[in-house]
TrEMBL record:
<dbReference type="InterPro" id="IPR001509">
    <property type="entry name" value="Epimerase_deHydtase"/>
</dbReference>
<protein>
    <submittedName>
        <fullName>NAD-dependent epimerase/dehydratase family protein</fullName>
    </submittedName>
</protein>
<dbReference type="InterPro" id="IPR036291">
    <property type="entry name" value="NAD(P)-bd_dom_sf"/>
</dbReference>
<dbReference type="Pfam" id="PF01370">
    <property type="entry name" value="Epimerase"/>
</dbReference>
<comment type="similarity">
    <text>Belongs to the NAD(P)-dependent epimerase/dehydratase family.</text>
</comment>
């Protein structure tokens, strides 16, 4: 049995859909009421409404489902963390601790945690390895880094097995424009013939990884037998500038983007891509979907969503 938190979020939805296809036993959890959650998936699926900041509710969920694995995707997002650092800590730190406590009490085999590449802060060397010193620049980054350390300590003290993936810039179907993420936001605005706003001059580069590849590794992490209790970058190792991504999206949509430059956002970090050597060492492979193919699949989904 796999317990998934944040199952109605972007990555969570893709994971749930894949697990439904494969027939693996799981329970999806999120804060949505059950009726709304099932309606959003167009039918019944194994789901429980769960607020991870409620320790008693987390304990009840574990007692009812007896999970062997936990895939922890639930999070208070980065942009909101700048305005609401306390709320961010309540969800991303206290909520995560509630899950870790329940996991050790119920002898969960492995916790798989979605961390973030942004915890690095100032980039010293590129590509960025997992061993590069971290100096988070946002409350979100601080919280994610704290949970990485809590996992290490829970492993040392209680033997709780874990695997951390530091997500780089994940994109793909079910990432909605209102999330503020670059790809769906730019794509939706180009589809509607609206201006595209760029923070800075567009020369900042990122490592964009397709969500299907991320789901592949989340599932592989359930079965990997090489030593775990590790932190792994989950990116492609390839850099693409924001300007290049916008240009590619314009080609996929078939419209020339109207770009307007804006002031850079606080907490943004400079060009960085994933050092994927450790990921390849553990799994024997790295994400393989090229950016153009991923953008085309994303466009097909988004076009249906926004009509």
């Amino acid at each position: 049995m796999i317990l998934i938190t944040g199952a109605l979020g972007f990555v969570g939805r893709n994971l749930v859909l894949r697990l439904l296809e494969t027939g693996r036993e799981f329970v999806a959890t999120d804060t949505w009421p059950e009726r709304e959650a099932r309606e959003s998936f167009g039918g019944s699926f194994p789901y429980q409404s769960l607020d991870i900041t409620n320790a008693e509710a987390v304990e009840t969920a574990f007692s009812q489902t007896s999970p062997q694995y936990v895939i922890h995707l639930a999070a208070h997002p980065l942009p909101a963390s700048i305005k609401e650092p306390v709320s961010n800590a309540q969800v991303n730190i206290i909520g995560s601790l509630n899950l870790l406590e329940a996991s050790r009490r119920h002898e969960v085999k492995r916790v798989i945690f979605a961390s973030a590449s942004s915890i690095v802060g100032k980039v010293e060397r590129n590509p960025v390895s997992e061993d590069q010193p971290c100096l988070p620049q946002t409350p979100y980054g601080v919280a994610k880094y704290a949970v990485e350390h809590y996992l290490r300590v829970f492993n040392q003290l209680y033997g709780l097995d874990y695997l951390v993936f530091r997500f780089f810039n994940v994109y793909g179907p079910h990432q909605r424009p209102e999330s503020g993420a670059l790809v769906p936001l730019v794509m939706s605005r180009i589809i509607r013939g609206e201006e595209v706003f760029v923070f800075g001059d567009g020369s900042v580069a990122r490592d964009f990884v397709f969500v299907d590849d991320v789901v592949d590794f989340l599932i592989k992490a359930l079965e990997v037998t090489t030593p775990t209790h590790r932190v792994l970058n989950l990116g492609t190792g390839r850099l693409t500038t924001i300007a290049q991504v916008i240009e590619m999206i314009g080609k996929v949509v078939g419209c020339r983007p109207k770009v307007v430059q804006k002031t850079p956002r606080p907490g943004e970090i400079t060009n960085f891509s994933a050092d994927t050597s450790r990921l390849r060492e553990v799994f024997g492979q790295v994400p393989s979907t090229d950016l153009l193919s991923g953008l085309q699949k994303t466009f097909h989904w988004l076009k249906e969503e926004i009509g």
